[in-house]
Amino acid sequence: MKLIIAQGNPGSEYKKTRHNIGWLALDAIANELNADDWQQKTKFHGFVAPVTFNDSKALLLKPTTFYNDTGRAVRTVTDFYNLQPSDILVLHDELALPRGSVRVRPSGSSAGNNGIKSISSHLGSEEYWRLRIGIKPNHQVANSSQYVLNPLSSSDQEALKQLQPTLILYVKKFLNGSLKAHSFSLPETKA
What residues act catalytically? Predict the structure, then answer.
């Protein structure tokens, strides 16, 4: 069993914000893997959907704990299924990466991401997979906290759409145990 979690915030006001790009990516992945049976599970603090790919089973998770407290949901699922940190893949936005780029790593620091800090704190480990989706603007922003909570621009949405095949490929590799650290960028996108 593996866990694929997308960081984001519950509520319609956050649905299409940059901080919820992980949730949007997970929706595309769920669609590709025919996981249409999302159910809210209060014991897991989120919405879950089971998937199977090439005999590998996984649980998709969209926590309802808010972005900065996702560790609580991850810990609950991890304990219930007796998972190891290496069985976990976290999809999240990354302000340090340009729009249209992704980076996947088997471990690492939080890089200032409070949701990642929460997961690491609850697991007592930083040895879990992260799939970082770039949202860095092409211009300087005065308030990064406000920027991530703003709606996705049309170029953000287009970049995410173009990245979907790559994100799906990485998730499939994670599920079959062949995922390696990697970076990918689309050709230059406009603001």
Answer: 19
